[in-house]
Amino acid sequence: MELQRVVVHDSVGIIFEPSVLVEALADLPVPVETVGDAPALDEGDVVVTFSPRPSFFDASWVHSVRAGYDEFPLERYANAGVVLTNSTGIHGTTVGETVLGYMLALARRLHVFRDRQRDHEWTREPYDVPFTLAGERVCVVGLGTLGTGVARRADALGMDVVGVRASGDLHEHARRVYTPDELDDAVAGARFVVLAVPLTDETEGLVSASTFAAMDESSYLVNVARGAVVDEDALVAALDDGAVAGAALDVFAEEPLPETWPLWSHEDVVVTPHTSAATNRYHEDVAGLVRENVRRVRAGEDLTNRVV
Q: CA within 20 to 30 Å of 45's CA: 98, 233, 272, 280, which one?
């Protein structure tokens, strides 16, 4: 592959202004510019994007600024001979901190007090409701970059960390690791169940009614994976029935969430708009990945984070 230019697609604007990434990549040995929704692309072009477009098949290499690539038609990229890379590996700190924030808010009831502040209401929670994270069990489903970021922080706070991963291999921050077929056993007794898996055929609908039945009534679900990993109807039913205590959700089957979504006003559901990885340095992290792979292409080395 002989690189001619790097183009930053306007779709990255959902996360950051395209111009800041162009500026961060200004030291590359090829031109860097922004492009609109129907760019004219040629062999040797690199496209940095948030979302796929049909015109990208005319480029040589496409880089997704997200870790997830379920929206990209992998077979078509392979057939077209277009390289696809993603941004896995840069979200462990941001997502780990966000999940820690969710757990602290739910345990210390900060979300409830924020709601009461809006209503100018000075009311304490019942004595037996707030709790500390130390000693509580958290089950981290998926122990890649995201899950490791969560497990490391939970371990540092003295939580009892267990995990779920396809291999079942041990993890330095988890006391025990289960395989996906043992999910119901893994979530039993966990105060928090954190989902940090990619969306694949194997993980779609992974968390179902049986999972919620295996969780304790005092358990909370935290989803920073993908909305489709959870059977949302089963989640709504579990919350309505009191089978679980609450949830912190950053991802959903339908985004943006419709106004009619049934859990908008649920007191013990925290909703964030798919922003668990957000940081004002995100463009610099993406630039680092692109810069390294440009170096690798010019050196004839394998690309990092190659999907196709």
A: 280
